Every structure is written in structure tokens, then in C-alpha cells.
């Protein structure tokens, strides 16, 4: 996940990872759950010189899903385990390209595996917002790369929306299931030329 951003969530007591790309001068990209079930809300995360991720936590004031009032946890990679995950989601002219951390089992991935939905939120002075204008999208698997590390899907694109891209029943070539089955892409700009949809 080199080059990606890691973000701690105070309320959900988890860490997200984000792949960004610049489209027509504006950054956008996809967020994935990275580490779940931490003991308290994440307020400060930092990698040390040995590559370990330290997570400073508190549940004071807002409360947090983890349940503990405070905490400090260290996350260390064992140096060998590479989970089968969606590594990144990138925009194409007609949908998205999904990259995997290891080759996908091509027999497990088809158009029926795809669950694509979109919505947006109200941005106003009132706290919070429900999901607004939720839509379920038809999605088609266009191609899988010869090395099994990328899949391209086609779906209708609307700017100003968050797209959830879910993969059901998809496994890696070695048989491992996806450890994170949904990615969330914030679509601010498309690759279409002016006048095109």
C-alpha cells in the first residue's frame, strides 16, 4: 500500500486506507477499511522508523465503538502475509479499474459479482446527514488483465456522488477470500471531455 494514505476514525475505532488520483485538477479516490476492532477511537496514527503503525486513542467526549476510554496500540506487519484485497480503485471513462494485491481467481469474478451503489450527503450547518438519492447501478465486468491483478468494470457515472463498489464471492487465485469486500470512491470529476457524459 505504498503511496496510500492511512486515516484513523475516532467514532468507529478503525483505520482506513485511501488511494488518491488527480482528475481534471482535483483529487479524488477510494477508501477501504484497513484495520477494524481497535480498543478505542483513533485520534493520532504514525509510522515509526521500523514501519510499525502506532495508534493513539481516546473515547472521551464523543465515545467510540471500541468501548475503552483510551488506548495505545501498535500494528506490525509480520513481513510475509499479503492479504487478498482490492488494492486501489481508479476512474476510467466508463467506470472503474480495480487493482488487487495478488491475482484474482478469474472464474470467481463476473458481472454478477458486482454490487455498485451511489449516494451523496447534505452539506449544511445542521449536524450530520442521511444518505441522499441512493441509487443501485447496473455494472458490467469488461475485462480482467492477463496477470489477474486488474479488473475493469463499466457503470453509469454521476459526479458529486460516493460510489460503493462491492465484490461478492470473489477469491484470489490461491483461494483466499477478499478481506475487504467494499471500496468507496468519491467522484468529483470524470474523465469525459466537456459536452460528454
Helices and strands in order:
Blueprint: E1 5-9, E2 14-23, E3 26-35, E4 42-47, E5 53-58, E6 70-75, E7 86-91, E8 95-100, E9 114-120, E10 132-137, E11 139-144, E12 150-155, E13 161-167, E14 182-187
Provide key terms for this protein:
globular; mainly beta; four-stranded antiparallel sheet; 197 residues; seven-stranded antiparallel sheet; 14 strands
Sum this structure up briefly.
The protein has 197 residues and is mainly β. Helices cover 0% and strands 47% of the residues.
Describe the structure.
This protein has 197 residues and is mainly β. The chain is 0% helix and 47% strand. Strand 4 and strand 5 form a beta hairpin. The radius of gyration is 18 Å and the shape is globular. The relative contact order is 0.19.
Broad structural category? mainly beta
What does the average pLDDT come to?
A: 94
Individual helix count = 0
Order of helices and strands: EEEEEEEEEEEEEE
Task: Report the C-alpha radius of gyration, rounded.
Answer: 18 Å
Amino acid at each position: 500500500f505504498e503511496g496510500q494514505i492511512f486515516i484513523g476514525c475516532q467514532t468507529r475505532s478503525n483505520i482506513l486506507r485511501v488511494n488518491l488520483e488527480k482528475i481534471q485538477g482535483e483529487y479524488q479516490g477510494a477508501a477501504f477499511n484497513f484495520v477494524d476492532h481497535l480498543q478505542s477511537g483513533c485520534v493520532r496514527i504514525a509510522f515509526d522508523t521500523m514501519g510499525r503503525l502506532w495508534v493513539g486513542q481516546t473515547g472521551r467526549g464523543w465515545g467510540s465503538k471500541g468501548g475503552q476510554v483510551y488506548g495505545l496500540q501498535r500494528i506490525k506487519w509480520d513481513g510475509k502475509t499479503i492479504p487478498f484485497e482490492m488494492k486501489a480503485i481508479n476512474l476510467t471513462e466508463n467506470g472503474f479499474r480495480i487493482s488487487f494485491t495478488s491475482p484474482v481467481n478469474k472464474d470467481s469474478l463476473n458481472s454478477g459479482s458486482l454490487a455498485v451503489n451511489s449516494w451523496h450527503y447534505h452539506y449544511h450547518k445542521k449536524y450530520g446527514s442521511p444518505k441522499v438519492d441512493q441509487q443501485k447501478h447496473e455494472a458490467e465486468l469488461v475485462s480482467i488483465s492477463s496477470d489477474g491483478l486488474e479488473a475493469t468494470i463499466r457503470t453509469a457515472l454521476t459526479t458529486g456522488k460516493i460510489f460503493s463498489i462491492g465484490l461478492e464471492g470473489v477469491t484470489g487465485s490461491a483461494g483466499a477470500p477478499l478481506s475487504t469486500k467494499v471500496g468507496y470512491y468519491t467522484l468529483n470529476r470524470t474523465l469525459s471531455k466537456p459536452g460528454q457524459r
